[in-house]
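B., you asked whether I could sanity-check this one before it goes into the benchmark set. Here's the sequence:
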Amino acid sequence: MEIYLRQICLVAKDIKAVTSDLESVFGTPVGHVDPGVGKFGLENILMAFGTQFIEVVSPIQDGTAVERYLDRRGGDGGYMVITQVRDKAEQETVRENASKNDVRVAYDSDRGNWHLMQLHPRDMRAAFFEVEWDDVGDVEGHWNPAGGTDWQNSVNADRVSGITAVELQSADPVALAAHWSAVSGLPVQDRDGVLHIALANADLRFVEATDGRGPGLGAVDVRAVNPKKILAAADQRGARVSDTQVLVCGTRFNLVD
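And here's what the prediction gave me:
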């Protein structure tokens, strides 16, 4: 089975400010806005990083799960790991694995030729794990959450060209890695003492939580085409952490080759 990373979802209190930061630092325009998230009391934007996406969601009414998450984690940060599989059978395999490991399905939507399944973040012990399939089956092109293929008209790869890894943090990264392995059905790899799960086009990396924010999605590795421009823009926004890292929307973005 192959699982493809297609999208990372971040949460923000001020979506306009975060959108401005992302556009400025990474040079990526907004490619899609989904009015459908309004039924959850949210607004959103999506930006293409190559053929993958950064989504930002923000509450527009009181009492949403996103608002509670912002309070629990002390501000903006990572929220969802969103993936794509080739067909329903592969999605059902993950569903069965989740059930065997006492992971609840938080949201399930069957739209005929598109079916998405979200696994509960508390049960996944760090973040939502979403697994989708559609009848197009294009893991580098058509993507329903971004409106199909319209997003391809807004890609700007001058600074970043993709997402290569997602970092999930925990007080016990060994146990967290084993849990995500059991649910995804993919093996854990030890690379120089750091635990990884290799997806088809990116990695999940498991580390100890040291930022005082507890378990969660703490960092994203992006393929930096022009790190100098990224860092110069980050300097103007007060977002530069180091020569290889910037901080936007409470999330560490690591710049990799």
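One thing to flag: The mean pLDDT is 96. Otherwise nothing jumped out at me.
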